[in-house]
Amino acid sequence: MSIERLFIANRGEIAVRIIRAAKELGITTIQAYSEGDADMLAVKLADESVCIGPAKATESYLNITGVVAAAIEKSVDAVHPGYGFLSESPEFARAIEKAGIKFVGPSADTIERMGDKVAARQAAEAAGVPVVPGSKGRIDSVDEAVEVAAKVGYPVMVKAAAGGGGKGIRIADTEDELRTLAPQAQQEAAAAFGDGGLYVERSVKSPRHIEVQIVGDGRKAVHFYERECSLQRRRQKVWEEAGADCLDDETRENLCMAAVALAESVNYRGAGTLEYLYEENTNEFFFIEMNTRIQVEHPVTEMITGIDLVQEMIRVCGGEPLSVSQDQVKKSGHAIEVRLNAEDPFMQFLPWPGKVESLKIPEGEGIRFDHFMYEGYQIPPFYDSLIGKLIVHGKDRADAISKVATALEGLEINGLKTTVPLHKALANDAGVASGDFHTQWLEPWLEAGNLKPENT
Amino acid sequence: MAQVLSPLPGTFYMKPSPEAALYKNPGDPVAIGDTIGLIEVMKTFIEVKAEFAGTFSAYRAEDGLPVTAGQALAEVVV
After folding, report:
1. Residue A222: partners with Cβ closer than 8 Å, 6 or more residues away
2. Looking at CB atoms within 10 Å, which of A54, A157, A415, A442 has the fewest?
3. Same domain, residue pair A250 and A186
4. Catalytic residue among A11, A113, A208, A293
């Protein structure tokens, strides 16, 4: 019953990563590719490949009918969706299931449920996972808002119950402020949406982004500890770590066990990540969402636990039970991943899809480089700009940061501009070294001119 | 006659959105810095601006199709 022929419905570095994991399991790999990706590394590494349409993603990697037809034509028994594209599409998972093919991920129903913000929040609450406390439903008077605020604690965020897009959002630090701001929010909501109903919730100040990796086999789930991904630009993670040194042991244990409880409560199968906001000054964490797929930053977890998460997800989705129990998951040291993008960090991160003229990859103990480049490869302009991920494993956080700096010195990618200079500057930054940052730290740091050619 | 070249490889668009009007029509005046088209590259849209003034002549690339870096996108009579 285990998987013999695996179809990879993705591209870039994650396709290469999946092929490597499948090969180690003795599985035949079939790589899907668009016309813009015919010469990508995954096509060269896979046992077989199949073109699924034009370069435009909506006509290839995002075309459910076309991808499913190609998987059927290739007589595969499983499909790995990678991340992005169709990885969290319940319609895609359902179409794969209906074709009698295994989906390397949770069931379509679970993807649907966890992809719905309200349903996911309810599932989290039911499993005892803390969510950002707020009003149960809409609020129509200032007194009601004050009542809720007293319960959830200040500061609170007041926003329009209808609509979105930031209209009517106010943050109040005290009851007096709330009494001034709530009527303004009501007016703005009424003007924008024709409905003055409000929603009040705790405002999480300077949040850190902490997430927990889990894998479930449909019955049991285990966690592989947490990651911190607070260094973000335009809501894109740029630098990720495992573990999160800002947490004390008790908080870490609570965070991880809450993730397992939620995963088991929905009979989760495959790899998944629970994302939390963590407020350092109150030591509180709140569930925000669950990603029902493998994530870009999974290698940092693999480095500290020694477990191949991509192999594990393929095995459990093939019908096997988890290969490890919770007490067999041990962690050691600290790992950091930096995302390398084909962008010019000195020119507002302008995309730079050049041709890889030469490539020198750093090697050594605790250094890993996941990518899809080779000398002479033209990076296609049609997809996102991630070209690789440099991952290091050190004995502690300071050691890992110093390894990032050393490894970056040994990395040479000629022919394109990359975000390597940004990471060199971050690896040498005192704020990064002290770990004193949050999700709104990096953009002001860039705006303040901290990225200069001389400190990279 | 001067050519506006694509600064990057990507997908070329001669309108800011599918429903919008063309950035330039033949005979339109062109000032330095005027937007002539858009290049979609790695999920980012970049405005292509005129580096010279003159009168717009014609587009030389197709709307919504891939272009290479350095390819002529439009012609301007200077």
Report:
1. A214, A215, A216, A260, A322, A324, A325, A326, A329
2. A54
3. no
4. A293
